[in-house]
Amino acid sequence: MALRDSEERFRQLAENIGAAFFMFEGHDGKRPGALSYVSPGFKKVWGFPTEALQEKPELWINSIHADDHERIVDHLWQLMQGQFAQEFRIVRMDMEIRWVHLRSFPVRDEAGLVYRIAAIAEDITERKRAEEQLAANAVQLQKTVDELRAIEEELRQSNDELSRARVELEERVIERTAELAAANRELQNQMNERARLENELLEIAENERRRIGFDLHDDLGQKLMGVSLLLKALETNLTHKRLPEADETRKVQSLIHQVINHTHNLAHCFSSLESEGEDLAELFGQLTANVRKTFRILARFRALGEIPSLPADTTLQLYKIAQESVSNSIKHGKAKQVSVLLARRGDELILRIKNDGVPFPVERGPSNRLGLRIMNYRAHLIGGTLEILPNGNSGTLVSCTLRCVNGQKNPRLKLNSIPSRQSRSQIAEPNCMQV
After folding, report:
1. Average pLDDT by stretches of 10, the chain with 435 residues
2. Gap between the Cα atoms of 402 and 382, Å rounded
3. SS3 state of residue 402
4. 324 lies in which domain range?
5. Which residues are within 8 A (CB) of 61 and not within 5 positions of it... i.e. 6 or more apart?
6. In a domain? residue 98
7. When you count CB atoms within 10 A of the terminal residue's CB, does the N or C end of the chain come out lower?
8. Residue 434 placed within a domain
9. How many domains, the chain?
């Protein structure tokens, strides 16, 4: 009676836990005997319904993974002695592979004889996966430790080399710094010398231009005036004699008078040098007005935005750049229209001179002619950039850009003012085009 009560309690326990309980009867010492009971936990572990074991009692053995099957079968004799404790894999009904830990223990009667074998099987898949992950992590950790030790050893061995290399590098840096300082001083000297030479070049060019203006007015102009007076006398004499040559003489005298006027205008242009104290926009307006008057072409000036107040040398150089550009438009480009634009764009001041004449050849750099080189020098002296490009299929575009700071031009180099001389003939209109 007590034995039956014990078995009933065992059965209730087996049916209410997740592990699978087995009861085997009539063992022969090699095999556990017939399967007399299996708990509902068998389905949770093996995935097969418990009824399947009634038809195929060997199902639980046949479900063991092929890699573990032979080992488990060889140890089944331990099951009868209560010494079986093995971990193995099974292939469930849904073909999922799970790990199982199965152990056995004998059940004895009142006389102490083994009449039944009990076994319990637990699903240990998650534990095995955790162990495998820990093992893999341990291997990776050990690999990392070994690599770090190797790196540490390499670093220790190369430490002396790095120290020596650092000392050598510091010495080389000191030497190179000294060389660069010397080269910088030499470069600065060369830059100062170049600036001085550019300044002298501009001064020479301005003085030569002024001298040409004086020669045109005092020499060529006076001689042309003498020729005009002689022609006038000749024309008067021929008229009194009623000779037909008087009309031809009068035409020649008219042409000479035009040449005298043109020479007079050229003399004004060449002799003008100073523009200090004058507004740049006003100067450009006078420049285009004088071009219209002298050369009978369409010339206009526009100012866009708020034009900042500029130093006198900056105003002078921008005016000379515009003057030379307009001169080239007429002399080399044969232009019929010339426009001058002075615009403020952000912190930049832009001067653009556009014409409809012969386009400036791109393959010829602006340094190939003296006038263009001087324009570049002027832009360089005031910290500007000069660009000369074809204006589409007809004409040329000259652009000079300056950077301004707080409304003022950022000066780069001051051009020494060239002292003006009083013209011997008190030439007026000091702001016209250079030809």
Report:
1. 62 71 74 80 89 86 91 80 84 92 84 82 90 91 91 85 87 91 89 76 68 65 73 80 79 78 64 57 89 88 88 87 88 89 91 88 56 83 89 87 65 36 33 35
2. 8
3. strand
4. 278-417
5. 69, 72, 73, 76
6. yes
7. N
8. no
9. 2
